[in-house]
Amino acid sequence: MFLKGLGIFILVFMGYILVPSLVGSTFYYLLHISENSAMMIGNTSFVLLLILVYHKMLFDKLKDFGKHFPRYFGDGLKCWAIAFAVMAVSNIILSYILGDIAANEEANREFISGNLLLGFYSVVVMAPFVEEMLFRFVLKKMVPSNKWFPLVTALMFGLAHIVFAGTTSVLEYLYVIPYGALGYAFGYIYTKTDNVFSSMILHAMHNFISFMAVAFMV
């Protein structure tokens, strides 16, 4: 079970790394489009690939989510509210100690400020779908334990937001705490409902709030 789940996770993770880059680069060099357009095409190609591979599961879970929406969303909202409080407090403390915000947060602000439309698509639409499919749905196959899964996904989710932001300072790894808190909430509600849309909708809602906060500062 673990080895099979690990293999699936590695396969999807490599797709997450390689597919957007390869497809985007191909369109960029062949059609001479802008880097932003190439990035959007590359990211969209991976989203479509995930939908193609997991279309039956997604369709079934979407119906289940609609059927149990009040309970799934209500429980998820409580989890998110607690995680958001932990994330906000820890971010304030860490930014005071380190003298700067997380590299991932800074990169997102610059990206959104540079292009609101592409920023909205990437942060509010694409990222929640891809990250929930990878760090919740696929990762759960590797860690089937409902007890340990929220902790594992919290750690991996937190580290991913630090490593892929190009962090250079060891101290910045402390930001695993706020990102991990959010990852734990998403992992917990996914485990409780066995429905990826439960965490996906909350993730999109959280990112939308963050997007609007940045957009109003532009």
What is the compact description of this entry?
The protein is an all-alpha fold and 218 residues long. The chain is built from nine helices and no strands.
Commentary on this structure:
The protein is an all-alpha fold and 218 residues long. Helix content is 84%, strand content 0%. It is globular and about 45 Å long. The mean pLDDT is 93.
Please describe the structure with a list of short key phrases separated by commas or semicolons.
218 residues, mainly alpha, 9 helices
Question: What's the structural blueprint in terms of helices and strands?
Answer:
Elements: H1 2-31, H2 35-53, H3 55-67, H4 69-98, H5 103-114, H6 116-142, H7 149-163, H8 176-193, H9 196-215
Helix pairs in contact: 1-2, 1-6, 2-6, 4-8, 4-9, 5-6, 6-7, 6-9, 7-8, 8-9
Helix amount, in percent? over 70%
Q: Summarize the main sheet.
A: none
Mean pLDDT: 93
Spatial shape: globular
Summarize the helix and strand pattern as letters.
Answer: HHHHHHHHH
Percent of residues in β-strands: under 5%
Distance between the termini: 48 Å
Low-confidence stretches: none
Number of helices: 9
Radius of gyration from the alpha-carbon trace, in angstroms: 17 Å
Determine the oligomeric state from the structure.
Answer: single chain
* Alpha-beta content class: mainly alpha
The count of DSSP E runs of length 2 or more, i.e. the number of strands, is 0
